[in-house]
Write a structure and sequence with these properties.
CATH superfamily: Metallo-dependent phosphatases
CATH topology: Purple Acid Phosphatase, chain A, domain 2
Strand order of the largest sheet: 4-5-6-7-9-8
Radius of gyration: 20 Å
Number of domains: 1
Number of helices: 7
Number of strands: 11
Helix content: 10-25%
């Protein structure tokens, strides 16, 4: 007979929250009848209620919908919930963002010597997060929905990868635009334009164990050239699964979500939470999910 496997009594996992494609708009403006700020605050309240022990929250770009200062101000106000809970916040930008307007509001965000919003975040003694800026600009333009890593950003990345290799860190690389095709033609057209160049670099480093992207508004995971990747849904609107259309504006009001990374010295586990379907405090136990032979049995042998 089978036996239950005992749970490990080792150290608990470090926890990192990830949200992407927030798309905050000016007051009263919506996306397919959804209020992005309301959805983000719902996600944030849900995450903080269940994961107040998280080391940090990372937002992986498209923080604003139109790159306006007022949109970043509204986001900054909402993020006070995380700060008050003692959860550090790290911000990245995407194609809907405006780097200059963003920095007017988030003045303390780390910036590289070339003026890009890139930084390194260590979680514990084992994991290093490298956050990249894939916005194509300046100049800022709503016509540039694809991403790019210019030579200055690539040089900075390789330097950080060398440091991480030397420091024996497990590396998680985060960027807004996926550097590879995902089978969704409309979004594949506006992926990272020099994605092959990036992947050629990443595969040279054994320390790179996980890639996290945004941009797509769908839950997707897989493996590219030996590197694991994960993409999360937006708290707001999602991309319907259409493997034929070249329209990158496809949107559907599927439930919003956020990601949770659980980090141990020898593992990275990626979860996604559809927060609108997971009521806090609800008892989800269900006898219908238990085999009949197990019901009313005191022990499982």
């Amino acid at each position: 007979m089978s036996q239950l496997v005992a749970l490990s009594d080792g150290p608990s996992a470090r926890k990192v929250l990830v949200m992407t494609d927030i798309h905050i708009r000016s007051e009263g403006q919506k996306i397919i009848q959804l209020d992005p700020l309301e959805k983000f605050e719902m996600a944030l309240c849900h995450a903080l209620a269940l994961h107040k022990d998280a080391d940090c929250l990372i937002l992986t770009g498209d923080l604003a919908h139109s790159g306006k200062v007022i949109e970043y101000q509204r986001l900054n106000n909402a993020l006070q919930l995380a700060r008050n809970a003692g959860v550090a916040v790290h911000l990245m930008i995407g194609n809907h963002d405006n780097r200059e307007n963003f920095l007017q509001v988030f003045r303390d965000t780390p910036v590289t010597s070339s003026g890009h919003i890139q930084q390194v975040v260590d979680i514990g003694s084992t994991h290093r997060f490298i956050l990249l800026d894939t916005l194509d600009g300046p100049p800022f333009s709503h016509d540039k929905n694809w991403g790019i890593l210019c030579p200055e950003r690539i040089t900075w990345l390789t330097e950080q990868l060398d440091h991480a290799e030397r420091d024996e860190k497990a590396v998680i690389v985060l960027l807004h635009h996926p550097p590879f095709e995902l089978g969704t033609p409309g979004m594949d057209l506006i992926r990272l334009q020099n994605g092959n160049e990036l992947m050629d670099i990443l595969v040279q480093y054994k320390s790179v164990q996980q890639i996290i992207c945004g941009h797509i508004h769908r839950t997707i995971s897989g493996n590219i050239r030996g590197k694991a990747f994960a993409i999360f849904k937006s708290p707001c609107h999602q991309l319907p699964l259409d493997l034929k259309s070249t329209d990158c504006s496809l949107s559907t009001p599927e439930p919003g979500a956020y990601g949770i990374l659980l980090l141990k010295s020898d593992s990275i586990v990626v979860h996604t939470e559809d927060f609108e379907l997971a009521d806090i405090g609800k008892d989800f136990s269900c006898k219908d999910a238990i085999p009949e032979w197990q019901i009313n049995t005191d022990n499982i042998n």
